[in-house]
Design goal:
Strands 12-15-16-20-19-18-17 form a 7-stranded mixed sheet, with helices on both faces. It has a 4-stranded antiparallel sheet with strand order 2-8-3-7. The protein has a 3-stranded antiparallel sheet with strand order 4-6-5. It is flat, with a radius of gyration of 33 Å. The chain is built from 20 helices and 20 strands. A hairpin with a 2-residue loop joins strand 5 and strand 6. The protein folds into 3 domains: about 100 residues, Winged helix-like DNA-binding domain superfamily/Winged helix DNA-binding domain (Arc Repressor Mutant, subunit A); about 120 residues; about 180 residues, BirA Bifunctional Protein, domain 2 (2-Layer Sandwich). Helix content is about 35%, strand content about 20%. The chain binds phenylalanine. Phenylalanine (PHE) binds next to strand 19 and strand 20. This is Phenylalanine--tRNA ligase alpha subunit.
Length: about 500
């Protein structure tokens, strides 16, 4: 029988009496494991071998785990120093014991957080006691680390560590558990017959080369079948962050919907961020609690004079015959103060006023996908900086239908078809709506944006004479709906999990 070279090698190396693992076959045939796996699958299809699969869990110590395996667990080192200081008789100063233990940096916190939990003693108002009956030699985690040191990638069944301890070490980030599929191969009767009858190697080509094409040889060669199931080496190269990928996709979608991109400063005058939006100067969001002010320089040099006057008048007197202003103070110096923008609606005011690219004629559509900064408290749905998808449409006779229809069209491009709207209030829009989507795994409603139709009080001073509908959507919340992230910190900042970012499939 004629078979490709790698298959011949596998049939020759495999046995009918016992199973051989792919790795062992790779060693025996001198072929890469992925080539052997490919050959094995094809032989299985032809009935020459049978393949049994099992998943092996293997463990390996992380760098931190290695360190503790060498130097001892921080809590054990603290206990030893405490005994040394006589803390089994009298409470000793915590600072002194820590100093004597030689623990540094984050290891101190790790020692302290495990010390009492694991029964080594107690910590109370700066003093530390040691339980004389505690026994570091019986510390299951310490013993497990010792057992695991130097056994990288050993199947869990073989290492002598109980599941609970292993789970604890994994949670502490001291071991990593990996799953690998092990394939065991045995020759079938037909395989044995074929082998005894004699095997011939057929030439197969695994890759098309320019030479094959130009020489015309490709017409005569036999191509190896492509096996997408074969294990292959994992390549962990750099890749575009999922947040950036989604931002780019949002831009593509909006450009596809006829929008043009806005650009502008991250640090801007309150005038553009708030005053042009008919936000009263005594609005709570304008206090120093909510914004990141700039120390140097503190104020913008220039603002368009006429516009400043018109905005001030709108704030003081309102706009239109029955308009009412805020009757509250308005101060140009306050408007000139610089801060990190809390929303990208500052770009919209710059563009709408004609300041950024000159006067804009309706119909027009603009957007940005840019960072904004807020002095919020960090929690699973809030960050100090995040990306806002800003946008507006300028046209005659816009209605709430247009606004809702635009969102439905936009979100449908990301597979989100259950957007809900809730009436809302913004000083600069009337009516206003908050947008919600349903989280794919928790089923909770997630607020994903804020929107509305700009008020006369805002548009008139800017010199805009037709309708403008506008919005600010949170890019990170869109990711939560698309990928099921529950904590925004999974995709942003220092705590995000590299493995998760590597493995999340990007849907396009
Ligand atoms: N600036 C609003 C979003 C918004 C923009 C434009 C109109 C309405 C709302 C926010 O940050 O929440």
């Amino acid at each position: 029988m004629q078979l490709p070279e790698s298959q011949v090698a596998v049939v020759e190396a495999a046995s009918a009496d016992e199973t051989t693992a792919v790795d062992a076959l790779a060693a025996a045939t001198d072929l890469p494991p992925e080539t052997v796996t490919g050959a094995v699958f094809e032989l299985e299809e032809d009935g020459l071998v049978v393949v049994k699969e099992r998943v092996d869990e293997t463990s390996r110590l992380t760098d931190e785990g290695e360190t503790y395996a060498d130097d001892g667990l921080p809590e054990v080192r603290l206990y030893e120093a405490a005994l040394e200081a006589g803390a089994d008789d009298d409470p000793a100063s915590m600072g002194r014991v820590i100093g004597a233990s030689g623990l540094e940096g984050s290891q101190v916190d790790i020692a302290l957080s495990n010390y009492a939990r694991k029964g080594y003693g107690a910590i109370d108002s700066g003093e530390l006691t040691a339980d004389p009956d505690a026994d570091p030699a019986a510390d299951a985690e310490a013993n497990a680390l010792e057992e695991l040191a130097g056994t990288d990638d050993t199947p869990l069944e073989v290492v002598d560590v109980d599941g609970e301890t292993m789970g604890g070490l994994e949670r502490r980030g001291l071991v990593e558990i990996a799953e690998t599929t092990v394939r065991e191969v045995r020759l079938t009767e037909r395989g044995v017959t074929v082998r005894t009858d004699g095997l011939e190697r057929s030439e197969t080509v695994g890759q098309v080369t320019p030479e094959l094409l130009t020489s015309g040889e490709w017409e005569d060669v036999e191509f190896a079948e492509y096996n997408v199931e074969a294990d292959a080496e994992q390549v962990k190269g750099g890749r575009v962050h999922i947040l950036r990928q989604t931002a780019d996709r949002v831009k593509d979608v909006l450009v596809g919907m006829g929008f043009q991109e806005m650009e502008g400063p991250h640090v801007d005058a309150d005038f553009w961020i708030n005053d042009c939006l008919f936000m009263p100067q005594d609005h709570p969001a304008r206090t120093h609690w909510d914004r990141f002010a700039l120390e140097e320089p503190t104020h913008i040099d220039e603002l368009p004079e006429g516009l400043v006057e018109r905005v001030e008048r709108a704030h003081r007197e309102g706009v239109g015959d029955d308009g009412e202003g805020y009757h509250s103070p308005w101060d140009e110096d306050f408007a000139r103060a610089l801060a990190l923008r809390g929303h990208t609606t500052s770009l919209s005011t710059r563009y709408l006023s004609g300041e950024q690219i000159g006067e804009i004629e309706p119909p027009a559509r603009f957007f940005s996908v840019e960072k904004v900064y807020r002095n919020d408290t960090l929690d699973p749905t809030h960050l100090l900086e995040f990306f806002q998808i800003e946008g507006w449409v300028m046209a005659e006779d816009l209605s709430v239908r247009d606004l809702m229809g635009t969102f439905e069209e936009f979100y449908a491009r990301f597979g989100i078809t259950d957007i809900e709207f809730k009436p809302h209030y913004n000083p600069y829009t009337e009516p206003s709506f908050e947008l919600f989507g349903t989280h794919p795994t928790t089923g909770e409603l997630v607020e994903i944006g804020n929107s509305g139709i700009f008020r006369e009080e805002m548009l008139e001073p800017l010199g805009v004479e037709c309708d403008v509908m506008a919005w600010g959507l949170a890019l990170e919340r869109l990711l939560m709906l698309m990928y099921g992230f529950e904590d925004i910190r999974d995709i942003h900042g220092t705590l995000c999990d590299l493995e998760l970012l590597r493995e999340t499939e990007v849907t396009y």
